Amino acid sequence: QLVESGGGLAQPGGSLRLSCAASGFTFSTYAMSWARQAPGKGLEWVSGIYGDSSRTYYADSVKGRFTISRDNTKNTMYLQMNSLKPEDTAVYYCNTVLLGAAYWGQGTQVTVSS
User: Fold this and answer.
1) How far apart are CA 14 and CA 97, in angstroms?
2) In terms of C-beta distances under 8 Å and separation of at least 24 residues, what long-range contacts does 48-55 make, across chains too?
3) pLDDT value of residue 87
4) Helix, coil or strand: residue 87
5) How far is CA 10 from CA 7, 22, 78, 102, in A?
6) For residue range 19-59, what is the model confidence (pLDDT) as tens digits?
């Protein structure tokens, strides 16, 4: 199970930190990702991280502004979002793939507006 939290309303230039709490599998073994879906648009991959945090990846649209991390002792992944822009407005989902099957959380809404 994946449960996101931390979304909300932020002003342009502001920050938010999203969390994804995982349960039901050996969290440290699996890579995790964040994706988002803006109103009226398709799903966009945002960032990914290896199970041991040795590698991280970012979409060009968020590189330099967002930071992905994880705490395997807490079975939790994070997305620190700085310098937010209105175009970051979306529902954010955490995701992993277990034995070939994709698992998603319920999503958390992020709205960037003045």
Assistant:
1) 31
2) 49/77, 51/27, 52/28
3) 96
4) helix
5) 9, 25, 17, 30
6) 999 999 999 999 999 999 999 999 999 999 999 999 999 99
Task: Count the residues in the chain.
Answer: 114
Radius of gyration of the chain (CA): 13
Q: Which residues contact 106 (CB under 8 A, 6 or more apart)?
A: 3, 4, 93
Helix (H, G, I), strand (E, B) or coil at 40: coil
Tell me 99's DSSP state. Answer: T
C-alpha angle 78-86-6 in degrees, rounded to nearest 5: 25
Res. 6 pLDDT band, cuts 50 70 90: very high
CA distance 33 to 70: 11
Convert the pLDDT of each residue in 89-100 to its tens digit: 999 999 999 888
- Can you give the pLDDT at residue 12? 97
How far apart CA 28 and CA 65 sit, in angstroms, is 25
